[in-house]
Design goal:
415 residues, alpha+beta, 2 domains, six-stranded mixed β-barrel, 14 helices, ABC3_permease_C, cell membrane, Lipoprotein-release_system, transmembrane helix
Amino acid sequence: MFRPLPIYLGLRYVRAKRRNHFVSFISLTSMIGLALGVIVMIVVLSVMNGFDREMRERVLGMIPHATVESYQPVLDWRSVRDKALQNSQVAAVAPFTQLQGMLARGKAVQSVLLNAIDPAEEPKVSIIGGFMRQGQLDDLKPGEFGIIIGSLAAEKLGVKVGDKVTYIAPEVAVTPAGVFPRMKRFTVVGIFSVGAGELDGSVGLIDIEDAARLQRWPAGAVQGVRLKLHDLFQAPDVSWSIARQLPGNDWYARDWTRTHGNLYQAIGMEKTMIGLLLLLIVAVAAFNIVSTLVMVVTDKKSDIAILRTLGATPKQIMAVFMVQGTFIGVIGTAIGCVLGVIAALNVSAVLAWVQQVTRSPVPQCRGVLHRLPAGAIAAARRPAGLWRFLRPELPGHALSLLERRPYPTRRGPAL
């Protein structure tokens, strides 16, 4: 079967055993370095993407995408809901009231943010129901003063379902006996675990009617409504647009970019910087391959001279080494991609093995392999590998024929 000369010779050079074993060793280590760089990039970026997705699904699934609130108690939140649902970006609406304070049991005290919810409406805007370890949202009954707390808060307070905790409000009550903090006893009816320390340790859920009683509001009064949006990045514009359309001047809006935006930006910046650092790691392997090809060109001087003598053009000679270098680069990239994908899909098992070998705890993480990072890494490495092998060969065809001849020229007899 006919094959072009550069491809034929390039593949022969790849398979052939070199006289210089040091060059072969450096070439092998360069390929391994390239493969390891690709593996690390795929695994780390997949883990970062998984963390980003988990943060978006869990944290942003728990906190409101946006809220529309009033400085005065909202007596008819359903009319606000109907107005908000007229916006095409709004997927669901639910009432809420927030209370800050502390939970106490014995000598244990834990700060808490109480989210008063309507158990029938809350699943429309929150994923909290899917992370209940004990109990369920429907266990919150008006007038029974039940509370659902996170797993970390329950562990710190030493409580379980059925135990009593005391809510201490940041306000005081003036009585004939003196000034006392406002307190209320709650019964733990459920425990949730989202996997985010901020939520599991400092968030509690109560019935919205109980919150109105604590605030001494009329029955059914709420602080505002929380919005679930189709596009959470439209939260600032959508929430303020709805607030401006409501009657009166007491309305204002808040969104997740103000409450948790710094966390999201920090994750994005961290992912970018890690990607840049990993790219530099792969660049180190690239420089090793450049050194390898320089030595290969030097090692093949005699072969270059023979090819030029037989009529090979400089471009053909350059193409021979381009084929050789590109083949090695593609093999290294392919091995890295395959092993990187396997490692990313089994990252939990890899971490468990590392923990067993090192006998030190390793935080568990969840990797989510996206086609874009893996494909982009592989696509970026191939032309980069081609250019790395091309650059050292440019001077290869420009060497003098006499310098590259395999044998010295024979001189005639002295006169």
